[in-house]
Amino acid sequence: MQTLGVTDGRFGAFGGRYVPETLVPALDELAVALEAALADPAFHADLDGLLQHYVGRPSPLSDAPRFSALVGAPVWLKREDLNHTGAHKINNALAQALLACRMGKRRIIAETGAGQHGVATATVCARLGLECVVYMGEEDMRRQQLNVYRMRLMGATVVPVTAGTRTLKDATTEAIRDWVTTCPTSHYIIGSVVGPAPYPRMVRDFQAIIGREARRQMLERAGRLPRTVVACVGGGSNAMGIFHPFVDDAEVELVGVEAAGHGLDSGAHSASLTRGTPGVLHGALSYLLQDAHGQVHPAHSISAGLDYPGVGPEHSHLKDSGRATYVSVTDDEALEGFALLGRLEGIIPALETAHAVSWIASHRGRWTADQPVLLCVSGRGDKDVAQVSELAHAPG
Amino acid sequence: MLTARFDALRARGRRALVCYATAGHPDPERSIALWQGLEAAGADVLEVGVPFSDPMADGPVIQASSQTALSHGVTLEAALDLVSRARLGIPVVLFSYLNPLIAAGPGVLRRAAEAGVHGVLLTDLPVGSDPAREAWLGAGPLAFVRLVAPTTPPQRMAEIARHGRGFVYLISRLGVTGVSAQLPTDLPETIASLRAVCALPICVGFGISRPEQARLLGAHADGIVVGSAIVRAAGESVDAAVALARELRGALDDRAS
Ligand SMILES: Cc1ncc(COP(=O)(O)O)c(C=O)c1O
């Protein structure tokens, strides 16, 4: 498998391990355990078995005839929404939880924004009999009440985070604080391709099953590789997962869709790659929304899962190297995408995914009939239905 | 100046009292009064915390002080301005996360030195993590102070000690900043194993708030760092924080008599 510009936990200039000294030995231990696990057929057998029989992989590749007619090119949907728990997050949570078991760590920490990573982690912890503590911003707990309830049903402790913007950024900071305190006995399951090395590469490799399956399925079903692969980018794990196996296919265009919130010039968005500058947050150097003093600028997105001021370091490298392109879509446009895929295909996507749907829809005519587009449907929209219906009925 | 201070202390058999305060907390003017008061109370070194929006190594007390300071508009440049206005006679060590320093640009170390800063300590730039930036900090006008954690294996302790300047900051226990009722019982052994590979003075921080802790640690380390306890007291009043520093000074000196 290709390792694009990776040296020493970096992707070009990005990545690294900017953490308190206390965590350095824990990250070393994790890197060693990861390498040993990846070299051990028993680990792969456990993981593959659970991915197949518990998660429900491989996930289907659906054609989308009515959406394709609108776009003017065949659009193929990689259905991560059909995974157990309804999003791609479980691919990574499951693999990391198995790794934690190998390391003898029975207490799991996670952060969550939309609640999808928290639910996935709570789920695999229940399945494997691990203790699970999930940090979640108060604002996100309000936006995603159903997911909070799901996590608690499965025995997880959900800790409200009241610091800062009360969203994913602060939940991540709080999860790191827990880990600095408990690292000898706890494993921190980061939910995206962010954080200090080896997390970004590890999470990418655990999510790359999306792209490996999709690449094979495209060759089988469409008879060719996609012209363009499109995915939404919060921290960037579903995007890295589907991009990675296509990186060496030079003819395949990779497009990541960020959240433009109220608009790129409004100051209220989450478009770190489009509008950020390189900086260090949560242990890695990457594009970051920040002010001139290096203080992190609060992000905004209608979707809790994209509401994050940073982004995975490998995306920063793919942007600077020109291998991938990053675009953005506003809250309002995402709401249109949310409705559109439901109406045309009977698939209600997560609000995060809806950003990618909307970008494709607004670029109809960009592709010819022999240029298939592959969209990562990172999750299903059930978690967002209450929020969207409230917005639809809100006065004004 | 840091080294001279520790040499002088060592010559007199005294231990260093290192006090941490967040720049701009409780507000910019009282911040200056606090630092001057800490010096008068017998602090040997002042650690000036640079407020950061996402302090992942800090507990609730220092988090809240950073938020307060940021609400007063105090970031790195403003902190340097406060240091230069305070005109302190003791060495000042800047205590920061890396990002504000990167954003300030390559000239920041020179500007800090001109403002009266003598050392710099970064919570999120461990030894070996970024050779280019570590070289920049190591070659600059400030003493680049490094940290050792309770999880650090002995070989790495030696490596950190080799890279450190001024003193080595030993984190007393797992976790973020904040006061603790109890310090780890094996702390003296940790100090001893660091001592075996480290020629620099060793200052122990995290969790220290009480005179008896100061007295105990004074028997093993070259100095103690008091952070959250000072910041918490400063939230009540400058006088309360200065009184705490005086009490800790007394406890450290007591030990010697
Ligand atoms: C369905 C879904 N898609 C996308 C994301 C964004 O995360 P990432 O960019 O890591 O895929 C989330 C995060 O919660 C999510 O739940």
Which structural class should the secondary elements of chain A be placed in? Answer: alpha/beta
Arithmetic mean pLDDT of chain B: 97
The biggest sheet of chain A amounts to: 6 strands, mixed
Hey, roughly how much beta strand do the residues of chain A contain? 15-25%
Strand order of the largest sheet of chain A: 4-5-15-10-11-14
Low-confidence stretches of chain B: none
The percent of residues in helical segments of chain B reads 40-55%
Order of helices and strands of chain B: HEHEHHEHHEHEHEHEHEHH
Parts with pLDDT < 50 across at least 5 consecutive residues of chain A: 1-7
Instruction: Output the radius of gyration of chain B.
Output: 17 Å
The largest sheet of chain B has its strands arranged as 1-2-3-4-5-6-7-8
| Rounded average pLDDT of chain A | 96
β content of chain B, as a range? 15-25%
Radius of gyration of chain A: 19 Å
Main structural class of chain B: alpha/beta
**Count of beta strands of chain A:** 15
- The count of helical stretches of chain B stands at 12
Q: Give every kind of bound small molecule, once each.
A: pyridoxal-5'-phosphate
Straight-line distance between termini of chain B:
27 Å
